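Everyone, study these two lines:
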Amino acid sequence: MEASGIHYLELILILLLVFVVGFGSLARRLRTPYPIILVITGLLVSLLPAMPNISLNPDIVFLGFLPPLLFAAAFTTSWRDFKYNLVSICFLAFGLVGFTVFGVAAAARWILPGFDWRTGLVLGAVVATTDAIAATSIGKNLGLPKRIIDVLEGESLINDASGLLALEFTVALVVSGNRPSVAEGAGRLLYLLFGGIAVGLIIGKIVYWFESYIDDAPIEITVSIITPFMAYLAAESLHSSGVLATVACGLYLGRQSATYFSSQSRIEADAVWNTLTFVLNGIVFILIGLQLPIILASIKAYAFHNLILRAAIMTALVIALRLAWIYPGAHVSYFIRNKLLGQNEPIPSPRAIFVVGWTGMRGVVALAAAISLPEVLDNGSSFPQRSVILFMTFCVIFVTLVVQGLTLPALIRRLGLAGVPSDNSEEEEARRAMILAALKDLEAREAKANPELRPIYEDLAMHYQRRLASLSSQDKRGEGEISPQQYRTYRDVAQELRKIEYATAIELRNRNKINDEVLRTLQRELDLSEARAGDS
């Protein structure tokens, strides 16, 4: 189909991008997370009379959007912090998902006429996954404690896999009517988990090996864009978990990127991936809102006001299940962390735990999972209650994302959790160690240098002394002018010293003195410094 010589699909894509840019800018002005604004925008636009129906294809979400978004999130996640919080993350990503699935199944037959325990399990699996983009952006802006942000980000990385795994089992119960044995279920679960992780690590090691032999920013960035799709498709082709493969690959390469990416590649890759994730996230959140007319068309046989009431009850149940799990789950997970793992980590306050419970916002994975439900069973009959599951899922997504998202800032302030100063002692100590390492190397070089070049080393030493003094709030001193020859020496030695700083920062990360987030902050400063020196 064409419109004025331009393909219809291209017009739709351009329209979506215009919405993302325009309303993303509005969200920034309103200081509101853009997923909330974009979902509301999509919903309002879908109600316009002349607006065509734009259906959300689950294959496009699972194959086109999910891999790069998961990879980008995993790539920027600190492996040290992820591993440190793994028990708490698993209690949410696996324990809470299971609790939600069975809790919804138990209540669905009472809330929704025509539902039995099997269709209730399917609905529970569909709405079990969370999307942490809005919650973590709000939390970071308001100064929510970092360990809460780390747990929420880790949960959103893993629960896509656990939720889709639960969906696979529950859909099989409905479609085929066969109930797998405990041994079959456990075997399938282990294969999905460990098979997906293994595939992701293998792809990650191959990419790492390849990237180590090239030094061309466009090629390196192109490889990084291809990587999540390779990991996801490789795992899916082996009937394992593509989500876990992508996450494992992203975590591995994110930790190794400090050693194989050139400084120019890091600077350019950050810009490319920031733009790509914003565009992809923006499109999927717009698409969520645009699904309302399509979903409403599938439930014409039901009384709308009655469905709205039941959807409100179901949404309240989903929120309540998270809150019911979060308190005992937090105490058990921190008991394991303290008593068995020796982490000596104090349990968060009840207020902080409540905030974690209030951040269970659903996103595009839940809606794509609902749309992906088969339309017919093995016996040829229609999938029971499919349209109702779609409508319930949309309502849960909209309410949790918009209502919880908009009330979260006020809740954080009300509970006194806003403005908690972040702990930057790791970063400051890392800066000090890097400067001292550079000064030590500089002192050794100066001792071997020709007398006429010693002013250059003194100037470089003064530069590093000024940086060291800035950490102690001491006064800075100005720089004098130097000759072209002196500047070339200055620039060459400065480049070698930056390499010393790079190596020191990586060594501190490898010895778990700093996390990957601090490492990336320090490396970006050095990358920008090197780029400025190259442009001079």
User: Anything to note?
Assistant: Residues 113 and 385 are 10 Å apart (CA to CA). The two ends are 53 Å apart (CA to CA). Residues 1-5, 473-483 have pLDDT under 50 and may be disordered.
